[in-house]
Write a structure and sequence with these properties.
InterPro entries: UPF0210. By secondary structure, the protein is an alpha/beta fold. It has one domain (2-319): Anaerobic Ribonucleotide-triphosphate Reductase Large Chain, CATH 3.20.70. 38% of the residues lie in helices and 19% in strands.
Length: 320
């Protein structure tokens, strides 16, 4: 098990004096990423708040939610690489069209469509909004799971680390987001096959994902955020192999959204028909609302069969 991210949550108008101490303490635990999420600042204060955190050496910053148009989000994402979300399909589509026309599809990794409600104080960016001061934590643990009971053991170790760093900084520990998420060969798809003897894309896949979700939910630890299986295509090498082999299609990822938080995340999509993409996004909104839980969507609008996602390499594009 490794810490995927440690996140400091702050009000946007905090004095940020804790940030340097947090960064130093967090880095001692060797997480994959160190993050800061601020409550959504009013547009007049956004640039100042983001620039201040950048100057303090914070590379993962979540800030732009609720108040911002596609044009404003593009400006800050392009300049600062700040994470943002939309709750409106129309504004998200405007953003996607802007980066597609400018040849900047890579900026999609920073921006999500958040459908089916809001999620608060999760360390998973960009589909989470800060409302409380404190620390949250996420884990990288697909390779550690040999049985479903291993999930609680991993989350308890994460909780202990989160409580340790929170106590050292005099901050509230908000919780662990126990979501099972991949990173390269640390694959959720492989974990599903190892635990249930099925390959994603075959009958039983929805049931397997649901059983993992139930194991996460039942773990007796302090939790925050999503706490579901995540299937970000670009981040999971086995998912990429399954797509290339024709075993998984766009239809599958949309379908899995019914039982996991992002069924369609970090996914290049060949966009030839923007109206079809719009209808697809509304399908995902309908699934989230029927499911009664929020979901996050991130799409790279591309023309090619494969798209090179920074940090994760070539990723096959899904077709509508």
């Amino acid at each position: 098990m490794r810490i995927r991210s440690i996140t400091l949550h702050l009000p946007w108008d905090d004095d940020y004096s804790i940030v340097a101490k947090f960064k130093q303490a967090a880095e001692e635990l060797n997480p994959a990423t160190v993050r800061v999420s601020i409550s959504p600042p009013p547009p007049r204060a956004a640039e100042r708040a983001v620039a201040k955190l950048r100057d303090m050496g914070i590379n993962y910053i979540s800030a732009l939610h609720l108040y911002y148009s596609a044009e404003e989000v593009y400006k800050y994402v392009a300049e600062y690489g700040v994470f943002a979300s939309f709750t409106d399909v129309g504004e998200y589509l405007k953003f996607l069209k802007t980066i597609y026309d400018k040849g900047e599809a890579h900026l999609s990794r920073y921006v999500s469509l958040l459908a089916g409600g809001l999620v608060f104080n999760s360390p998973y960016f960009p589909a989470s909004i800060t409302t409380r001061r404190g620390i949250s934590l996420s884990l990288l643990y697909p390779n550690d799971i040999k049985t479903l009971s291993d999930i609680e053991e991993a989350l308890k170790r994460g909780e202990q680390l989160g409580m340790y760093i929170s106590s050292a900084l005099g901050l509230e520990f908000l919780g662990v987001d126990g979501s099972l998420s991949p990173w390269g060969e640390e694959s959720v798809a492989k974990a599903v096959e190892r635990l249930f003897g099925i390959r994603l894309g075959t009958p039983g896949s929805h049931y397997a994902i649901w059983q993992l979700n139930k194991a996460i939910k039942s773990a007796e630890v302090k939790k925050v955020g999503f706490n579901e299986v995540m299937l970000p295509l670009a981040e999971d090498e086995e998912l990429k192999r399954l797509v290339r082999a024709g075993a998984l299609t766009l239809r599958d990822f949309v379908s899995y959204t019914a039982v996991c938080v992002p069924g369609l995340d970090m996914a290049p999509i060949r966009v030839k028909d923007w109206d079809a993409l719009k209808r697809l996004l509304y399908d995902l909104v309908a699934i989230a609302e029927a499911k009664g839980r929020p979901i996050g969507v991130r799409i790279f609008p591309v023309d090619d069969e494969e798209y090179d996602v920074a940090g994760f390499g070539k990723t096959p594009a899904l077709k509508i």
